[in-house]
Amino acid sequence: MRKNRFPESAESELHDSELPSTELAALGFSATGPISGVCEPKQHRSSADELNMNVHFRTQQWKGVSRDLTNRRAFIDRIKFNVYDIAPSKSKRTGRDGIGVLRTRRVRIGGPRRHYGWVQKGVCITTGNPFGLYYARNPHFRNLPAQKLEFHSEGQPLTSAQCKLAARGILGGDFELRPSYIELTFDIEHTDDWAASFFRRFSNHLFTSARNFEEMGETGPRTQYFGAPTSKWRLTVYEKHATILRVELSLKLPFLKAVGIFGAPDVLRLAELDVRKMFRFQTFKSGALATIKLPRRLSSWQVQIVRKWRFRDQTLATILSRSLRIDSAALLTESPFQRVIDQMLKGLVW
How many CA atoms lie within 13 A of 185 on its CB side? Predict the structure, then answer.
């Protein structure tokens, strides 16, 4: 694990010569798909096993991944609700199963620093999505609600109606749900022949306003964190599968209040969220680094560092702007990844 204020990598590659900014095909995508303007990953099949591979591609499933949403629509992978009782139900106190839910086990999680003492785990029968009901609040945290309800999309993408129906079976009575934590998720699928370098190419184009950076998994599946764990929002990029890259934007309660999300129906407002204020995808124009005029005070080896050293695009842009006083904004252009993210966000599933 390594931490840097401005991340860089000696393993990344020069971008202006290898990543055309106008062709999605150069990034492992094809521009045709069942939804207009949405990118579909290419499929490579050998002639000998075409039939078998077609069947395998259509039936293959991964935990927490919906093949109908990859490269097409964003979704909510995890959401937590603060529960406020209006009229408590007796079934909740006795721990009986409500309609559409199956309680599996009750786990004690109490401790001096824990917010709650117990969690009732279970699964929604119709969707297969697990849930957790946290209760027995720690008396040291009196500002917290008496209960908290969490849903995770392992069977199907979460929706507002699905969460309300499950909450009615879990809690009973009358209650109010207020979102306190949301994971806005994008699944990007690429072709197998791009698996080795896709993660690095994707992260090289990522520009973010977060100041903290952390990377893990240098010898295995890689994960990058942008932002501190205590910040209002945090961006996570990791390899969900060999051909699927997941981008998660974790939004906490202060951020949700700031954008007007106070109830379950309000979560749909995230489809209009301007994520470019938090992160965006850019890359240097083709040949831009070779044409810039560097200050004469730089020695020959410093010139080589700027033009040939393998930085992330954001790191190199920061060096040009802050250290060399060169307007890097004029050298950058929008990455095709940005168009994919924008299209997926507009089609948010909730």
Answer: 27
φ, ψ for residue 16, nearest 5 deg? -70, -20
Domain boundaries, given as residue ranges, for the chain: 1-38+64-88+173-350, 89-172
Say how far apart CA 116 and CA 135 lie, in whole Å.
6
Taking a C-beta distance cutoff of 8 angstroms, is the pair 214, 225 a contact? Answer: yes
> At residue 269, what are phi and psi to the nearest 5 degrees?
-65, -20
Residue with tokens 């995808």: 281
Joined together, the tokens standing for residue 101 give 């839910």
The number of CA neighbours under 13 Å toward the Cβ of 100 is 17
What residues does 41 pair with on adjacent strands? 29
Beta bridge partners of 102: 123
CA distances from 272 to 162, 269, 340, 341 (A): 22, 6, 15, 12
Query: Looking up tokens 């969490």, which residue turns up?
Result: 150
Q: What is the pLDDT of residues 217-252, one digit of tens each?
A: 777 788 889 999 999 999 999 888 878 889 999 999
195 CA to centre of own chain: 18
Distance in angstroms (rounded) separating the CA atoms of residues 138 and 225: 30
CA 115/CA 150 separation, integer angstroms: 14
Kindly report, residue by residue over 116-166, the tens digit of the pLDDT.
999 999 999 888 899 999 999 988 888 889 999 999 998 889 999 999 999
Question: Residue 245 to residues 93, 116, 197, 292: CA-CA distances in angstroms?
Answer: 42, 33, 12, 34
Closest CA to 159 of 77, 272, 269: 77
Please state the rounded mean pLDDT for residues 245-269. Answer: 94
Nearest to 159 by CA among 66, 279, 48: 66
Q: In degrees, to the nearest 5, what angle opens at C-alpha 179 toward C-alphas 173 and 180?
A: 120
The single residue listed with the structure tokens 């392992």 is: 154
- Between CA 230 and CA 216 the distance in angstroms is 18
Between β-strands 40-41 and 29-30, what pairing exists: parallel, antiparallel or unpaired? Answer: antiparallel
Q: Are 52 and 327 in contact (CB under 8 A)?
A: no
Amino acid identity, residue 192?
Answer: D
Which residues, listed in sequence order, are joined to residue 179 by a DSSP beta bridge? 81
